[in-house]
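2024-03-11 09:14:02 DEBUG pipeline.ingest accepted 1 chain
2024-03-11 09:14:02 DEBUG pipeline.ingest length=233
2024-03-11 09:14:03 DEBUG pipeline.predict start
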Amino acid sequence: MAAPKHLRGFTLIELLVAIGVMALMAGLSWRGLDGMARTQSQVQLRADGVLTLQAGLAQWGADLDAMVEPPATQTQAQWQALDWDGRGLRITRRSTVSPGSGLLVVAWARRNVDGASQWLRWQSRPLQTRAELQSAWERAAQWAQNPGDEEKRYEVRITPLEQWQVFYFRRDAWTNPLSSDGAATVPAAGQAPANDLALPDGVRLVLTLPPGEAISGTLTRDWVRPTVGGGKS
């Protein structure tokens, strides 16, 4: 009976080479998976940024759609449906969540938060009396200029923002609300403001979004008063 042939095993060098090749393949695979994970994370962040911006613009339009004009007993100097002072835009609007709960005062502004310029929205609680409305109107102006901790409780961050501008459409032209051509005439005490001057036919929002965000550059959004544009904005 013939003796079995001697079986040759792997040498130490061959084992080291095999281990090195497997380690290299594992490293390349890990880098590929890590790159895919980073890409997916960046895509998700950009998608979240786009959705947040879209939600903010939708809320902007909803606030304007729900805007209500002041009662005939109020003058523009006291309380308006819409006011832009160069820092913040204030709106008196009805509540669409609970229509019978009263009116709301909302405001939009740009302010530095935690080292970054942000587009912000502020909203009051439902208001029933004229005194409450007047107080909330003044608090909204304070929030847009120099808010305290109490005012900040009611604000929501929308999106990073470098600059923004607001224009009114009156007399067939877009004008700066702070210019003499775009400013409304304040009526005498006890008189109602003229509708064509109290509320513009349209509002143009121009946002300058910072680089590195989901959407950057200049974005323009036009809103048309429903009674003027047939409900389209």
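2024-03-11 09:14:41 DEBUG pipeline.report Confidence is low (pLDDT under 50) at residues 184-197.
2024-03-11 09:14:41 DEBUG pipeline.predict end
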